[in-house]
Design goal:
alpha+beta; five-stranded parallel sheet; about 40% helix; 16 helices; Dna Ligase, domain 1; Rossmann fold; globular; about 500 residues; D-amino Acid Aminotransferase, Chain A, domain 1
Length: about 500
């Protein structure tokens, strides 16, 4: 097992990995930017190294600086978390060349899934169902028109090198195909330095279902439950749950076996996720995320499998701690991503200083966070404050606990999307599990957000006022602890 691991990330995911390391008896190294000098994750780690200015391009995306930090501190391995360099094959390859263990798949596996076109070809050859579409990139409008005529409208145009829904265009009619293709290519060129675009049949009313997989270096691969991720805004997940409301034991075994086949097709090793689109009884490969997902906690809650620890063990060369038969799903878990953003202003980011903060608790509640009262949410990175997870015996109890948790959650000083989550949770169609990726548009959920915001205003003012008195005490205690720690320990190394 490793003695020391560097976490090449920030915020809540950095703390999540550090917690796993602490339980395994592994020392941790944080890397931080100028904006994160006072961030909680940098204080939680055993060591912290300054890696550059606030913009990610000058700090968290600096492969050379992160490898230097690993060398300076004697870290044997690097965990990339999610985002930043987590799916960058150049970073994984650089780690391999330096003799530092990359806690994730091989650079080859990342590379093979980096192109959506290449991934489709690999999965098709492996017998994994794929959505009907182009065999390769499409650049000529006439060629695109001929293909679309064969598969039928509507279609989706997707950047081959993309992710996160960036550059995707839905085309409903022939007259819109040419302009949409030009727009998708332009966005792909700007965002990914690759204007290659491919075409897929657009599935109406699809559900987004994914399977967590674990694969070791001994050739063993298993799936660890399913997740429903259909509540999305602009292809960005907002609420996830496990298991999926439509899942049966038979369907889970079938789709899980296909997910394992997909991982084996690229000789995968580590934790990863195979994503599917499910529509009208059929499912199709969407993509494979070669990293730990943001929503991994809900899988941990219903299976009691610590995915972060398993990922570290696999990277250290250990065999899987579980067989497929040992994976059991008990209860139901829901995750809400709490972001510093304004839902009533088109979800515009709301960076700034958190003036008051009190996280929820009680039975069945887990909060993964990296903020505190007084913390300044910088404008340079994503606006996530925390992930709130509610666990219950069944879906109804999980929803009820999440509602209660969000009621308790107090964040002042910045706008949040808490009321958005409450509006969704109270929606009757959501409660029935009748959801798809178009849910937010179909339900006109923003009108309900306005009503919830008004209804919660008085409660928020009351609780925030009560919090204010405690906040001063918390601040005083934090300052005292900080002063003590600075005297007891040497300061973080810095260049």
């Amino acid at each position: 097992m490793f003695q020391k691991i560097l976490i090449a990330n920030r915020g809540e995911i950095a703390i999540r990995i550090m917690r796993a390391c602490r339980e395994l008896g592994i020392s941790t190294v944080a890397v931080y930017s100028e904006a994160d000098r006072n961030a909680l994750f940098a204080k939680y780690a055993d060591e912290a190294v300054f890696v550059g200015p606030s913009p990610a391009s000058q700090s968290y995306l600096r492969i050379d600086r992160i490898l230097e930090a690993a060398e300076e501190t004697g870290a044997e391995a690097i965990h990339p978390g999610y985002g930043f360099l987590s799916e960058n094959p150049k970073f994984a390859r650089a780690c391999e060349e330096k003799g530092v263990v990359f806690i994730g798949p091989t650079s080859s596996s990342i590379d093979r899934m980096g192109s959506k076109i290449a991934a489709r070809d690999i999965m098709k050859e492996a017998g994994v169902p794929i959505v009907p579409g182009s065999e390769g990139g499409i650049s000529d409008p006439a060629e695109a028109a001929d293909l679309v005529e064969a598969i039928g409208y509507p279609v989706m145009l997707k950047p081959a090198a993309g992710g996160g829904g960036i550059g995707m265009k839905i085309v409903w009619e022939e007259k819109d195909l040419g302009p949409a293709l030009e727009s998708a290519q332009s966005i792909a060129r700007s965002a990914f330095s690759d204007e290659t675009v491919y075409v897929e049949k657009y599935l109406t009313d699809p559900r987004h279902i994914e399977f967590q997989i674990l694969a070791d270096s001994k050739g063993e691969t298993i799936y660890v439950s399913d997740r429903e991720c259909s509540i999305q805004r602009r292809h960005q997940k907002l609420i996830e749950e496990s298991p999926s409301p439509i899942m049966t034991p038979e369907l889970r075994d079938e789709m899980g076996s296909i997910a394992v086949r997909a991982a084996e097709a690229i000789d995968y090793r580590s934790a990863g996720t195979v994503e599917f689109m499910y529509s009208k009884g059929n499912y199709y490969f969407l993509e494979m995320n070669t990293r730990l997902q943001v929503e991994h906690p809900i899988t941990e809650m219903v299976t009691s499998v610590d995915l972060a620890k398993e990922q570290i063990r696999i990277a250290a060369g250990e065999p899987l701690a579980y067989s497929q038969d040992e994976i059991e799903i008990r209860g139901w878990a829901i995750e809400c991503r709490v972001n510093a953003e304004d839902p009533l202003n088109d979800f515009a980011p709301s960076p700034g200083r958190i003036k008051g903060y009190r996280s929820p608790g009680g039975p069945g509640i887990r909060v993964d966070s990296g903020v505190y009262a007084g913390f300044l949410i910088p404008p340079y990175y994503d606006s996530m404050i925390s992930k709130v997870v509610a666990m219950g015996r069944d879906r109804n109890e999980a929803i009820a606990r999440m509602e209660r948790a969000l009621y308790e959650y107090i964040v002042t000083g910045v706008k949040t999307n808490i009321n958005f989550h409450l509006a969704v949770l109270r929606n009757e169609r959501f409660r029935q599990g009748d959801i798809n990726t178009n849910f937010l548009k179909e339900e006109a959920i923003m009108e309900e957000v306005k009503r919830v915001t008004e209804a919660e205003r008085e409660k928020g003012l009351s609780l925030a006022s009560a919090l204010g008195a405690d906040a001063r005490k918390v601040a005083a205690i934090s300052a005292a602890v900080g002063a003590y720690m600075s005297q007891r320990e040497k300061p973080a190394s810095e260049e």
